[in-house]
Amino acid sequence: xxxxxxxxxxxxxxxxxxxxxxxxxxxxxxxxxxxxxxxxxxxxxxxxxxxxxxxxxxxxxxxxxxxxxxxxxxxxxxxxxxxxxxxxxxxxxxxxxxxxxxxxxxxxxxxxxxxxxxxxxxxxxxxxxxxxxxxxxxxxxxxxxxxxxxxxxxxxxxxxxxxxxxxxxxxxxxxxxxxxxxxxxxxxxxxxxxxxxxxxxxxxxxxxxxxxxxxxxxxxxxxxxxxxxxxxxxxxxxxxxxxxxxxxxxxxxxxxxxxxxxxxxxxxxxxxxxxxxxxxxxxxxxxxxxxxxxxxxxxxxxxxxxxxxxxxxxxxxxxxxxxxxxxxxxxxxxxxxxxxxxxxxxxxxxx
Amino acid sequence: xxxxxxxxxxxxxxxxxxxxxxxxxxxxxxxxxxxxxxxxxxxxxxxxxxxxxxxxxxxxxxxxxxxxxxxxxxxxxxxxxxxxxxxxxxxxxxxxxxxxxxxxxxxxxxxxxxxxxxxxxxxxxxxxxxxxxxxxxxxxxxxxxxxxxxxxxxxxxxxxxxxxxxxxxxxxxxxxxxxxxxxxxxxxxxxxxxxxxxxxxxxxxxxxxxxxxxxxxxxxxxxxxxxxxxxxxxxxxxxxxxxxxxxxxxxxxxxxxxxxxxxxxxxxxxxxxxxxxxxxxxxxxxxxxxxxxxxxxxxxxxxxxxxxxxxxxxxxxxxxxxxxxxxxxxxxxxxxxxxxxxxxxxxxxxxxxxxx
Lengths: 351, 356
Known about the structure:
The complex is a heterodimer. By secondary structure, chain A is mostly helical. Chain A has helices at about 25-45, 55-60, 70-105, 115-130, 135-155, 165-185, 190-200, 210-235, 240-245, 250-270, 280-290, 295-315, 325-350, and strands spanning about 1-5, 10-15, 20-25. Chain A has 13 helices and three strands. Chain A has a three-stranded antiparallel β-sheet with strand order 1-2-3. In chain A, helix 3 (about 70-105) packs antiparallel against helix 10, helix 3 (about 70-105) crosses helix 12 (about 295-315) and helix 8 runs antiparallel to helix 10. By secondary structure, chain B is mostly helical. Chain B contains 14 helices and no strands. In chain B, helix 12 packs across helix 13 (about 300-325). The radius of gyration of chain B is 20 Å and the shape is globular. Chain B starts with 9 loop residues before the first helix and ends in a 6-residue tail after the last helix.
């Protein structure tokens, strides 16, 4: 394998046989730092809390050598919850990165094609009309989201799909479903409406190893697929015509990307409910940190994972004795961080 | 700059149609179509006076409107439905106009007028009022809602503008999204911790024309009027800005000043409308797309068409919402989407889209 340095030391190219990889140095450094931040947030989620523990207690508990209390708190409560948070955050962020690149729109998120609203409708129908709960809600959400995404995509097909038309269809269908959701909520009793509202905000409380076991393989497969598509996505950032001229089969790669993005969002919704404001800011934050165009899938995933993990920790511990669902805090954590990044850019402009 | 009120001669309209490909002004020309739309609006307004749980004939409704009679029909028409119709027309027009301005400002099809932080600011202020001050009546929400909208949108402008690339659309959109997210979280948190707040809030957040009498409208009217005037004066300048900052400067239009004025107009319009009825998101988001598909991207036509279309949609949704449910009414915020979306989907599917 040879390493070629280019562009005044900014990029490095690795070549080994059939594989050639071009990386931006800043992007690698930022990704590594983000990896450290992610591990740090995982550790914080394990260590901090009503019972604060030390690192060697954590190590002992993970290798089943701690006291029963330590093992219960760390291995059974905190670790699976934190891992779920990391995975859901990563899935949402990657899905957001895919949709923002696909629609060339910084407001892009799975909701662009109506996914979140559809998932909420599915879950509300299960909870308020069929009286189901738990797993059934997740199934309803997944089905609702997937059906909505498919309907939006099919409605937008008109002699080939078109990014702009897709966005408009998503707006229309999303608006219809949102009003259905409001209708269901205003027509139900206060108690039902409030438990539905808790689900709609998104929650990670009580997530155990069962969730981790379901999430991990799905996330692994989907992220590998997403990374394979990232070159297509990067070309897709150009206009449709230029991408086609570069040999990209637009239609095929768009369907695949939408499917992967919806899959990622679906996994996240099924595990934690429709958590807001991870999919939108994570790719924007990652892009501002790496300063590299393109979907920035890995940095986005790390940003999303850390954001969600820290937001969950804050929701768990800041309002003791109450636990605030993580969905309430993602807006604060992600929003304030994005605000901070924007003010920093603002100040730089000033100079 | 001003709103053309007479029909454009058809040869000119035909020539313009070839420039704005994908519009459907038809043989009437755009001016004629606007007149027809205003006629439809008048018709919908009449049915809004006549239709309800106690349906009257158009003739009776018309008569009661102009004559002080002591009948039950008179009190229904003048006491309830007239106010409600007026509120519907004003709020609908304001939301449609704000939506068209927002899309011209951000050049982003996903940006609804609430994205400047207006809706989230109103919601945060209203929730605070319900929780801390125990407010329950819509007229009490009004000033809080206006205040919240103003504060939130100032925060968005400050964040969204840098001094060099003053108020770039992307940054403005991101700043709006960030501020909206923070405020929405605050609202979610408060409503979650306080059940009574949630119960009042879940009905405010749907958006409704019920029990909005003229006092509420009158308080909001100065803002609506100022916003509308500013918007219509800006329409020519917005056309120039759409060509890019450099071209607009060459045409003698200051892009930055236009953007700031547009943002102020949006805040006035959307903030006042939200204060009167609660957030009705769908109208501002979709009606401009609909209007653009019909008349093309020229702002001088797009703005008035968006106003009229939005007023028609909102009022029609309100009328249908009164009669469609077996018991009670369906809130207008729900009905706008139910009525508007099929039309929207049809238009977006069929037409060659005039992009932003």
